[in-house]
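Pipeline run #58 for the internal structure catalog. This entry was flagged by the ingest filter as a single-chain record with no existing model, so it goes straight to prediction. Upstream metadata was stripped on purpose; only the residue string is passed forward. Reviewer on rotation: M.T. Logging verbosity set to normal.
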Amino acid sequence: MPVPYLLTTLLYLFVALLAAVDASFVSLNLVGAFPALRWVRVHFVTLGILSQVIFGLLPGLVASLAKKPRPSMRWDIWLTLNIGFVALVAGFSGVNHAMIFTGGTLIFIAAILFVVQLWNVRGGDAPASLKYYITGVLYLLVGIIIGTGLWLNWSDALYIKVPLEAHIHANSWGFMSLVFAGLLVDFVPMITGRPLGNKNAITYIFWGMALGAFGLVLGPWLGGSLPPTIAGLILHIGSTVWLIVLMIRAFKGSSRLNSAGAWHLVSSYAWILAPVLIAPLILLKILDGKAIEATAPQALIYGWVLQFGIALIPYIARRFFLKEENPQLGGSWMSLAGATLGSILVWVSIFIVPARGVLYGIGFALYALALIHPVMEMLGIVRDGLQKHELA
């Protein structure tokens, strides 16, 4: 992963830690002057940490797996992505529509350039994961359009009945689910020495996730239409459970399941399955959908996305930046406990209304504690890597 992407990943990881502390203090009424902005927190993890890793890692990773020359650093993509992200966050903070439009447009351009870059690696030697990556970023483009339109009143023009839900589904079940699955297809064999699954299983999981995500985006787009939503749920849950079973089998067979990093990857998927499994109860009006939709994305991002990153980002940095042949996964038992308990409390806060603020605040305090070890881990990796570059 190029150094500029590695440094911005570290920066956004540190900001995510501060954002978790901020959310905790505000919920516990310890700080009232600067109320937490939940969408800023979420986007620092998704468009911040996650996009830096994906945009920085995938071109070189796919090229190496396809046995093609390593592509050069694309400064145009890095600058467009990061300037767009800063503009978007600034726009969110001040509810500045011009800044939001500028940020969304720049990130959209960066994603288009990135898809073209990945598309150029296709061919007979391209890895099976490439279709996961390209399709995932195409869902990101849909998510950007819907998300930007939320602030600029595009939803009526695009005939989107429930735009917020469609935006979350495009980014979560489309973009992140597919890209994460592709990363597992590529990295589980490196970690365990055995493939994640056979060719047919990898292909079936891809189509289940891709079509499932389409149904989950189309459902709210049409105003909560049940047929595409239910079909999407079945396909996505089935494919995700299959992926988890294959991952656990590979880790167990290689005796890697006794490490905190492996459990970070496995347990992270509990928090993507939780809202999917709750969805039928919302559709049947058994549970209050508004309360869940307001809070569940926080547990989804900090429980699933961040835990996945806590395990895999240090591994990636050690393998491609420090050039270690058999690096360890990131995380510790403390970060695993903090992220897991934090997610449990954030979910419980949805249903216990009188204690919601306290539970939510303690949950984010645990997230902050869980992030301390990964931040220190990445600081050490960057320090060691830069020292190696100086000596070389």
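catalog note: The chain has a mean pLDDT of 86.
catalog note: The CA atoms of residues 200 and 206 lie 10 Å apart.
status: ready for reviewer M.T.
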